[in-house]
Amino acid sequence: MTSFAIQIDTLKSIPFVRVEGEIDLHTCPQLHQTLSQAIDTGATSIVLDISSVGYIDSSGLGVIAHAARRLLDHQGQI
Question: In whole angstroms, what is the distance from residue 6 CA to residue 26 CA?
Answer without folding.
Answer: 14
